[in-house]
Amino acid sequence: MHQGIKTVVTFVQRCTDMRVHSCLYNIYTSKGNTLIENAKNKFQNFKDKPFRPSQAEAIQAIRDSKKKVVAVCAPTGTGKSLIGMVTGSTHDKFAYLCSSKQLQHQLCEDFPEALLMMGRGNFPCNVDEGNRTADMCIHTSTTPCRLRPVCHYKLHKDAVLNHDMQILNYWYLLNEGNYVGRFSDYPVVICDEADTLESLLTSFVELRLSMSHLKNLDIQPPKYKTTTACKGLESWQDWASTEAYLKITNRVKQLEGHVSSINPNASMSVQEACLVRELTQFKRLQAKLETFSNHVDESWIFQETAGKRANGWKFQPTWLTPELSNEFFFRHGERFVLMSATLLPKPILAQTLGLSSNEVEVIELPSTVPVDNRPVLLDPVADMSYRSFSIEMPSMLAEIKRLIKNHCGVKGVIHTVSYR
Fold first, then answer.
1. Ramachandran quadrant class, 77 (left: phi over 0; alpha: psi -120 to 50; beta: rest)
2. Rounded to two decimals, what is the model's pTM?
């Protein structure tokens, strides 16, 4: 490590330790702990059990903060989940956001008092439970589904909306909050793994057009590839409102005509299912195009992507503006708690999320594990990039098996970069 960087890291760690062991401790002990203890005791798995070091102090500091966004940088083992859940339960209602369904299920096991909500694709369709899920629903006022009153997805969604402790994933809140509007207006939103928030929000607002869509609709690119070219931004705006909009909208109308003739109370043929899926895709694309038209500026970039996983065009903001981050995320709650073991420094964190530094307070917690017990060991076994994944995987599996064998009976975590 560069000496200058090492000095800064050491200084930050010392400041962090001082803040946690003195400032936070004094805040908590001076104000009493009845509210926080009662909130913790709502959860049967933690009732009457003591907090880990710094947990209660961190919760009190979050509650005392006057900022809209409180960022909690806490190392692994600190117990961020309990900090987040107890902080949320001191309010009338809260949403706890996870980055994956696996983490949602894990959180529900630890906190069964909360209710979990996921997208339609995770619920069977009442009409044809063995063959399709609720994301294939074609219920409308003119073609109603007779089983709508007992729809698995609708009933569970209503139950979660009426519950004060909600465990969602980021994508569900973004889609529901921005396009349906019912999962919003929270007193507090707890954001786990908040180091991924910038990329999640950027991906949500970006516009992607697959090569198949481009070919099928014969969509031509904007006249200029960059907004910084002379009349470049104007050409992008014209393209979005004419070339792309007209062709995508016409396709949506065609598909709506086909889907309207499908019986919602009967099993679907393969062809009918394909039409429903295609309509869903193009409606999402239509919404993304509207976002693009409303927010594109000189900071957006155009990329042509090629490969098995992504082949087509991508329009994406270089960074999140205050307008983007507020419209699609921060307007959905009065306060936000961002939690991660690896948060950026306050000025950079605020800027990347389209916030002002004055809107953010950072609380840093020390590791509860002694330094001697947490060395970092580099073991370059395999290249897990996309191109070499299949070839290198046997080497990686062999090393994982060796480590598990050498640490039999010891609890551990394996972090991966994909579900594969």
1. left
2. 0.83
